[in-house]
Amino acid sequence: MSILIDENTRVMVQGLGRDGSFHAKQMKEYGTNIVAGVHPGKGGSIIHGFPVFNTAKDAARETDPECSVIFVPAPFAADAILAAANAGAALVVAVTEGIPVLEMSKIVIELNELGTRLAGPNCPGLISPAKSKIGIMPGGIFRKGPVGVVSRSGTLTYEVVNQLTLAGYGQSTAIGMGGDPVVGMKYDDYLELFEDDKETELVVIVGEIGGTDEQDAATFVKERISKPVVGYIVGRSAPPGKRMGHAGAIISGADSTAEAKVVFLRDKGIPVADTVEQIVDLVGERLGGRN
Amino acid sequence: MSILIDENTRVMVQGLGRDGSFHAKQMKEYGTNIVAGVHPGKGGSIIHGFPVFNTAKDAARETDPECSVIFVPAPFAADAILAAANAGAALVVAVTEGIPVLEMSKIVIELNELGTRLAGPNCPGLISPAKSKIGIMPGGIFRKGPVGVVSRSGTLTYEVVNQLTLAGYGQSTAIGMGGDPVVGMKYDDYLELFEDDKETELVVIVGEIGGTDEQDAATFVKERISKPVVGYIVGRSAPPGKRMGHAGAIISGADSTAEAKVVFLRDKGIPVADTVEQIVDLVGERLGGRN
Amino acid sequence: MKLEEFQAKKLFGEYGIPVPDGIMVTTAEEARSAAEKIECPVVVKAQVQAGGRGKAGGVKLAGTPAEAYMAAESILGMDIKSFRVERLLVDPAVSIAGEYYVGITIDRRKKLPVMMASASGGVDIEKVAAETPDQIFFQDINPERGLRSFEARQIAFLLFPDKKKALAAASIMMKLWDCFHGVDASLVEINPLAELEDGSIIALDAKIVLDDNAMFKHPFMEEMRLPTPSEKKELDAKSHGLSYVQLEGDIGCMVNGAGLAMATMDIIKHLGGTPANFLDIGGSSSPEKVIHAMELLVSDSNVKAVFINVFGGITRCDDVATGLVAALQEIRTDIPPLVIRLTGTNEEEGIRILSDFGITALKDMTEGAREAIRLAGEGGCS
Amino acid sequence: MKLEEFQAKKLFGEYGIPVPDGIMVTTAEEARSAAEKIECPVVVKAQVQAGGRGKAGGVKLAGTPAEAYMAAESILGMDIKSFRVERLLVDPAVSIAGEYYVGITIDRRKKLPVMMASASGGVDIEKVAAETPDQIFFQDINPERGLRSFEARQIAFLLFPDKKKALAAASIMMKLWDCFHGVDASLVEINPLAELEDGSIIALDAKIVLDDNAMFKHPFMEEMRLPTPSEKKELDAKSHGLSYVQLEGDIGCMVNGAGLAMATMDIIKHLGGTPANFLDIGGSSSPEKVIHAMELLVSDSNVKAVFINVFGGITRCDDVATGLVAALQEIRTDIPPLVIRLTGTNEEEGIRILSDFGITALKDMTEGAREAIRLAGEGGCS
Q1: Which domain holds residue B89?
Q2: Which residues of chain A approach chain C closer than 8 Å at the C-beta?
Q3: pTM, two decimal places
Q4: Where are the extended beta strands (E) located within chain B?
């Protein structure tokens, strides 16, 4: 088991420009079951062994994908997400960075109506090691195992996962949920799925300054999650009011500082690591030192 | 019994200008249970014995109406319908004429989401004789009885009802569904309610040129309605392409002529009257001459 | 309100839809100079609110300014489906590689705008719909969300396999929606949407029908109205709160309510008469309105009898009768013989008021219609 | 992107929100003539992207043009929360009867825009929210539908029992939404929304923060950017694909990825050092980018050591190493001592490339941070 994706998940790739094409190849090599590509004007061609269609609707009719990953440039990405959802994708993973927040706010309403889950935007995607990866995560650092990881960041996720893997703690599924102010699924949504996943024994949540998603997650954990959860929050050294790369990472009020989050999580009974090494220690303690 | 409204239905009146105020009084005198009025700026006053509020939300909080009737001028009427629906009205009756069709098209989506039923716009409303009338129908010509009436027209409904009443055939509920291209409930919706209403023994549908609502109704009757239905279609003498007062009454294709409708209805087993007198005859035959 | 082609093309242009760079003219001389300005060959097109202009000879190709002059001279003043040609559009002639269709209207059943498109353009789309319905593609439009790019592309790629053309067509569809939404249209139509020999996609014809209910949002559009003489009469009626449509018969009708007005016309026809008009005086019964209504009927020389059919609903019959009496006292011109039918709220009082004025009102609609037919048949002596 | 008050008021005005008819000036002399034009008394207001201008002495009332001159002279050049005042807004002074608040921003949790309004305006709204939360009214806005009249009125009547004022406030709220939506803002705010003694309602202050992600839709807005010197540096960085924020410390950081960059700063601080900046070089590893990044770090004289922390994900470590070497060869200026940490995909190869160039790369982030702190402590001799 794992959450959201496994080796059978039928995947469609939207946007086969330089990046999309490169990552489609990477995904395919990792073992992801890519059934179709979508790129207006490239319909009828074959890229990396999968058929390409002009529209998501065409791709859906011919190849019945369950999931779509979006590499379409920001000005067209919201439309592409809707195209995937309206074509029946149950899960959309939006890698694209720079989608206007109001557009996201609009489309999440429609996605809810359609029952489509969204990971991202501005996210590295997700991976169920040894099964499937959807997005741009570097497959090599992951290893199959009992730890669920959900993070707002990209490279930081890799850093965390790498140290977990080196210490022998493999992952069930790892997700970068995206750093924008409005993203699809949040910690809660992933935590709920991890709770029901037999393979996952513990979840690491990696958070940062800005918003109050981590607090929401902690409240949710306290109320609904029986599995152990370990937290890590970056941005303690960030000055207030500044945007640290992630659009989401603006400190807008007292609640959104790293300190406030750390205190809140600990208050809800979630151990919080000060450094990446400490994450591994905390995980090790909770998994009984097994590795 | 009757459909949609009875003596207990709690009614709110939106728009207490000259017309709204006049008809609110008429309704009250008929026995309609008006619990509140809404008119921005008149909040706190009492009109015809009911309290007036600045907003539908205020009125809803204080008086819990189930139904709202709209007399608000066309440029503001769609907004008023939404205000009523968002304040929890289960039924909205929009008397207002002249609402842009695209605005109606937009708001029916939201009304569906909210589960609010809409009668109209551009309609005379509805009446359950001796119980409640909501809208502008002249109460005096109605009498309680077994005939359901649903029509796209106003005065024509009165003409039909008057002759039914004179002939001794009272009405369970009579509805003018409105003459605009986009209206809330249509024949089908009312027919379904009449089918389930114990008091209603027969339904008269009064139609006209334009659109294919009458055909939809006929198909629905054939498939779902066990009670006898009698039809009447006006506009046989109307020239093609012309708008006969009702925005809905434009002949736009072969299907929307009066002739096509008459043929279609008869084809589905619905007797169609050529004149108002004939309606009474057809009703009489089906109700076994009882009056 | 229907726009003429040149008006619709102007609006299309404002919304970024590619249209030929034509010139509207009203004389043959203007057509000649337009042809000089545009560069020949040009197409000279009658501007009337009716289809089938081509078949009627209302569209002509001109290779020189002189030919444009002659074409204009032959088309101006023409009668096309009873519309007199008073304006022409002089468009540059283009080389057409393919003709397509795209339009947006309201689907009354779905209560949504719907876009229709077809690779079989340039012909009557209703014929295509009837004969080869599978050649028309439909796209529902959620009016809160508008037509989305991906929806437009889904349709555009069905018409044009080529990427560049498909994207151009999709862009036009998006702009067509913007226009539909922006001007509150009830119909926008491009037929043909043409593919030219250079591969570009352009709207060669343009049709817009505006939603009269929404005109209050676009007051400047009222200025685009170019009524025909009969429409002028209808518009004048509308400005007095009357809904009027002139017909060919000899019995003038004055009725309160559109449905009842149609029923009145129907019963006249049913009994062998011919209604001269549709005239809905609406709910109120002010003498002014009745006077205007009567003047409208009198101005139609075909009218040999007038049937006033009023159902007193909220408007009480006594008020209507008072209004009628005031109106009849006011009207100075000779009026055709009248039949008045008055029933509903306070009918006894209304009939008494009319009777005091020397008019016998009837209570039955069929009886009234029969009497009006009889009077019209007598040739109209009152 | 934050706008200054005069820019925000200009946009508000374009959306029909009533604002004082003020003039932006940059010198005391201009302030004097603005005061003459507007008619005294006027208010002279420092234009900086910071709150609390009043308390800081950045807002002054002037009864005469001469007073406006003096006020301007005293405010220009002032430092308000580390923003230097270079521009002033001269607004007509008004008689205020009441101060209110209205703003729209995105609620990240609800994923919706939300309008906030309060009768307690003119003060720090976050203080109101913290101390008397029941004095703030919220209205969720469905972004597909926009703020509707009835929603605006629901809030407006809570602030103003008087009909005329309530409808004026509701109208301003609708326009504020139009503005929020039209310019793709992430925040629009009127504080105070003032009721004047004549009963009119007007926006006396204006705040707009634009969504940087949406700037591609509004290219002309880019011209409204008035960066402070430190922002100029950040913008320049952005134009090279770098995300840079200058801080006060002495350890320059260069990291791929925002989250990892924050983690790097945190670990430096955790170990007792002080980061000189946030610098995310993103995914690609082109030598140009690394050169620009290095130049940014070098231009900060506080920087005593540089910690380059790269996790090779999709970007392979060997590519990063090659880019780094090329960059280091290119840079002519003296550079502070470097610590490079390189791990992830193809790390062995990357470390070998650096080693060939004479640089010992570390594999552990904590170790790297510790080494950078040690080097910075030594005072920066390489």
Answers
A1: 11-119
A2: 40-41, 43, 54-58, 76, 79-80, 82-83, 86, 106, 110
A3: 0.92
A4: 10-14, 33-38, 46-47, 50-53, 67-70, 91-94, 117-119, 125-128, 132-135, 144-151, 171-176, 202-208, 229-234, 272-273
